[in-house]
Write a structure and sequence with these properties.
Number of strands: 0
Bound molecules: heme C
Oligomer: single chain
Distance between the termini: 52 Å
Number of helices: 9
Helix content: 25-40%
Number of domains: 2
Strand content: under 5%
CATH architecture of the largest domain: Orthogonal Bundle
CATH superfamily of the largest domain: Cytochrome c-like domain
CATH class of the largest domain: Mainly Alpha
CATH topology of the largest domain: Cytochrome Bc1 Complex, Chain D, domain 2
Radius of gyration: 20 Å
Shape: globular
């Protein structure tokens, strides 16, 4: 065996690992609802990794929660921020596994990709036992994310005008720094003050992929004052807003 193939061979496990990570992250890998069932394993995963923040009974009141901002989610409220359907809808299992695997950027919610996928599924099954809302239909249909148009200076400019016309500036501020006229008086559904995002920081809670920002603008964020624009704006206008907001980080 020559030197190069020896090196290649010794790197094999790493390649395999990277491919494993890529596969487990690709969204198409998860179907919308996968019927996880093992709440017993889920409970032990929860007690080990989640309870310290989300609390023994899922009320978001774990021992580390007190000084956190934002607070860990209160699962008994059955209200979630990142959903495939408009705000107030329940998340699909795919929504939950994405959020749990990737974490919530800029908050204390860590990414849980290091857990086995089966453990993530089981802990989702367990989280669902905290709220009856998971048994209730109907769901709103999932919002279709239209394919992105090319990102051009004209479209960004158009996004700028829609941003002001639609009133995003009332909360996010005239220049997008999170300092709009309503910014200081906003509360979330759990009675905690909440601040509109400052787009100059370029931090997006569920990551920077454009489709996720599209999803947030279209669906809004459950339990927060961030409204859904689905029935107010055309897909092209939502894409213009995505590009405009992304252009603000210096
Ligand atoms: C160190 C604290 C901490 C730990 C540990 C933690 N979380 Fe969280 N979690 C948070 C915080 C804070 C939020 C709220 C983020 C926000 O609203 O912006 C959150 C939010 C969530 C949400 C809500 C997503 C949505 O759409 O609203 C889910 C689901 C969740 N966590 C699951 C888990 C699971 C499962 C575990 C354990 C494997 C876990 N968390 C462990 C702090 C934590
Ligand atoms: C009534 C106040 C209000 C209005 C109006 C509003 N937002 Fe928000 N928005 C918020 C708040 C509060 C948050 C933060 C939610 C959180 O951190 O959980 C937010 C979050 C966001 C996020 C998510 C950032 C992230 O971390 O992923 C985006 C994107 C966004 N807003 C875009 C818009 C756009 C575009 C408009 C206009 C169509 C708009 N918002 C109108 C209050 C508002």
């Amino acid at each position: 065996m020559n030197r190069t193939s020896k090196i290649t061979k010794s790197l094999m496990p790493y390649f395999a690992f990277i491919i494993y990570i890529l596969v487990s992250f690709s969204e198409s890998y998860y179907s919308a609802d996968f019927n996880p069932t093992d709440t017993k394993v889920g409970k032990s995963v929860y007690e080990r990794y989640c309870q310290g923040c989300h609390g023994e009974y899922g009320k978001g009141d774990g021992k580390y929660a007190r000084d956190m901002n934002p607070k860990p989610r209160d699962f008994t409220s059955g209200m979630f921020k990142w959903t495939s359907s408009p705000a107030g809808s329940m998340p699909t299992d795919r929504d939950l596994i994405l959020t749990i695997s990737e974490g919530v950027h800029g908050t204390s919610m860590p990414p849980w990709a290091p857990l086995k996928e089966s453990e993530r599924r089981d802990v989702i099954a367990y989280i669902k036992t905290f709220s009856d809302r998971f048994n209730k239909k109907p769901f709103f249909p999932e919002t279709f994310i239209y394919p992105p148009p090319p990102n051009t200076p004209e479209l960004i400019q158009y996004g700028n005008s829609i941003y002001h016309k639609t009133g995003c500036d009332r909360c996010h501020g005239i220049t997008g720094r999170g300092d709009g006229i309503n910014a200081n008086s906003l509360m979330d559904d759990w009675n905690n003050p909440i601040s509109p995002t400052n787009f100059y920081l370029g931090i997006f809670k569920t990551g920077k992929e454009n489709w996720k920002i599209y999803r947030t603008i279209a669906n809004g964020l459950g339990g927060t004052p961030m409204p859904s624009s689905l029935y107010q704006l055309e897909p092209n206008e939502i894409w213009a807003l995505v590009y405009f907001i992304r252009s603000l980080k210096p």
